[in-house]
Kinesin motor domain-containing protein
Amino acid sequence: MAPELALSFSVVSVIEDVLQTHGSRLSDIHLASRKAEEASSRRNEAAGWLRKTVGGKDIPDEPTEEDFRIALRSGIVLCNALNKIQPGALPKVVEVPCDSVIIPDGAALSAYQYFENVRNFLVTVEEMGLPTFEVSDLEQGGKSSRIVNCVLALKCYSEWKLGGKNGSWKYGGNPKPPTNAKPPILRKISEPFMRSLSKGITLGDKDGLLNYISTNSEGGSIPSLNLLIREILSDKKQEEIPIVVESLLSKVMEEFEQRLLIQQEMFKTTQDYKALPEAEDSNVKSACNGEEMEEDEDVEVKQKECDDAKYNVDEEPNSQNFKQLELFQHQNENVQELKMMVHQTKTGMQVLQHKYQEDMIYLSKHLHGLASAASGYQKILEENRKLYNQLQDLKGNIRVYCRVRPSKGAQPNHQCPVSNIDEGSISLIVPSKHGKDGKKTFNFNRVFGPSSTQAEVFSDTQPLIRSVLDGFNVCIFAYGQTGSGKTHTMSGPDNYTEETVGVNYRALKDLFHLSEQRKDTIHYDISVQMLEIYNEQVRDLLTTDSANKRLEIRNSSHNGINVPDANLVPVSSTSEVLNLMNLGQKNRAVSATAMNDRSSRSHSCLTVHVQGRELASGNSLRGCIHLVDLAGSERVDKSEVTGDRLKEAQHINKSLAALGDVIASLAQKQSHVPYRNSKLTQLLQDSLGGQAKTLMFVHVSPEPDAIGETISTLKFAERVSTIELGAARANKDSSEVKELKEQIASLKAASARKDGELEQFHQSANSITETPKSKSQLSSIARSPTSSHGNRKPPREDSSSTVEDKKRATRKLTKRGSLEPLEIRNSPPWSYHAEENGDEDNKELVSGDSLGKSTKKRNDGLSTENNHVGDCDTESKRSSSPMLSPTFLSDPSKICTEVATTNDCDELELATSESSESDKSWQSHAHVPKTTSLSNGVAARTKKSAHPRETKNQENRSTIPSLSPSSSRRQPTVVSQQRKHLQAKRRTGNAK
Ligand SMILES: Nc1ncnc2c1ncn2[C@@H]1O[C@H](COP(=O)(O)OP(=O)(O)OP(=O)(O)O)[C@@H](O)[C@H]1O
């Protein structure tokens, strides 16, 4: 802001200076006396006005300069005069000056009070725009002209005011300057300026100058400027005048320049004062930042500086400084207020912080509680899952685990149909025909997402595998669309590592590990078979020539070996297993299809047989695990196969459809389960329908174009999970049962020996009696189960076995130990399966109501594939023969067996009340695998089927009394009587 320049100076002083420079003085021209006269006259006038205005008795009529100064020194007269003409202009006037004599330090106090009065007066006068003086003018004297000027200006103002403010104010200043007026400039008084003030004339103030001139013109006491200059120049020589005028002008110019400089300095000082409040602001900010104490000190220092400045200003009265100070004080008050607010805010913040901390503690406690509740919830969930699994185990449900393969590469614009994977459920987005996609959720025992590792997948399977060592049968099979990851789960990828190896290897590793741990209590023998079903043919994967060899499946064999002709390789370490698996994998039929580069074209089954013997008790147990990697179902249009591949695909799909039928029958608890419709279902029969623990891994591909197959796969899997197989049972034999089995084996051996003798006897008798029967028929009748397959080892000869032994064994097997009559039947294995497993087809095969009528309705597939069926036919034909086997003569128990066989082919069943295993072993004793020894004997089993046809047939069964060897000769009669009796009974039944 440019300062308003009040360039006032005394013309007289300037002229005086110029005259001095030129060696002459105003006094020379009587200026001094005139000045003195003028000063005294003006002083008298001022004193008179003051006396008149405030009644100051201390002011003489014609005071000297000193009198005048002393009279006004306290400032009281001046303040009162000012208050008189401008009431309230000075609210505080120290009226009674302290007596400096009576009161100690009174002088100092008085000086201070004078100073206060005079300062207040000067400030007000300054604000009114009237000429002022310096405090020192009053205290030190010598400069009273300025005081006189000021008083006369007041007088002038008073008169102007009393005159009703008519006309313009002669001093030109604003008598009541607005408070927001620009701050006046602090003036540093130079000597010439002081002098000019004494004259009360300002050049910058045109009115003032005019007033001065007019006043002096009117008063006549002071010559006008014109006159003054003329008077100065009058005594000058002509040639001196230009020089004097020139120096006069240059002096005026110099004075101007000096004034300008002073004004600029004053302006700068004003700016510095203005900067003070800003510094205060920054102090406030610093205080907010916690530096309050330091800043307080700073403020105090600044306050002190300002006070000093105030004092200095007091010394050089300047309304601008006072305004600045007031402003500063105001700002200081604001700062204090702000500080208070900051303090309050800070306190508030502290309270809030405290509350916040309390809240945080409360929340953290709450959170802790929630976390523990959540972990408890998790535990409960886990517990629930376990209980659910246990319940399922008790019910014998097939467990179903679902695994989603990772996507093969990114498929832009295609959304993965798998929308959500939970621990026990998987949700799919199912596209609908109407455009709006639906959501379908499937629940399983466990669901593994694409990121699940092989180890994670195996961890849930582990307990199941371990139960094999406790004598359970376990089946794990992988199901799913082609390329969905079945082989990956079961075997691992092609170049497998320790981490990526599949369930098969891990299972065996675990088995070996556990058997090693238990070696002090149980001795385990572990052996492995590896098969595949390719184009409905069972092939051994552990031989190189297996491609040409068709193997038989014999369900419910006594030792759990369903394919006895396949290689059974004993193993003792995982590396051996790995080698075998590699061999099997190499032999497995795979080929590239459009869906999978290495598509398995067959169902593969790795079977691990475990035989355990408890070292302390001698008890034995037997468990086996089937690890089945099914061939993938495929849509032939999609897999683009032709020729042999197409044929393979058709076989695969057919066998999987058969599996679906079996699952559906089991799920609906139907009495007939069509196991025999495919080799696959035949192989899995024990696992799906027996007392095994079964787990299915269902695999799905995440690709959107596989959604159809994915949905049908998951629906199928859900159905599988509803199947209840009944609680699994361990295959454990006590030592007593074992002993009995051994006895049975020895009896069988004895029986075989007798068979031989019988054959010889028969031959000799034949030649004597010329029987009508052919030789083959007789040998067929005489054929014992053990001799039906020539590829087995003959039973061990046991000379100690007698007929009594056999009878005892039979009685023992009734468990009750009584000698109650037993039904003893000899039957081919398929008959057992038919009844045991509710296989209607097979029941029909063997049903018939008369002797010799072995029948008829026959499943084509079975008739060609099952040797047992052929056996039955033979047996049936044989049964129609009126001839009795010579065996009857030598072995009564054989007779009974024979009778049952010939009489009722559809009832052919082994009965044992001791163990279901016994009967199974009996049925299958003809199919003992190469590596196992025979341990079967004759066993009897009470019939348990409630089938109506069986009930009917039961009536036809012969009740065989215990026979002693001595009665053997009567046997034909007994037998014929028996037959007659049965026939009669049957006829009666039919008539009814
Ligand atoms: N969980 C997985 N992680 C990584 N790769 C996988 C996974 N599952 C499958 N794959 C890969 O997907 C491809 C197809 O898998 P795989 O051969 O196991 O399918 P499949 O169901 O056995 O097929 P097919 O029925 O035709 O034999 C393979 O390259 C396999 O390595």
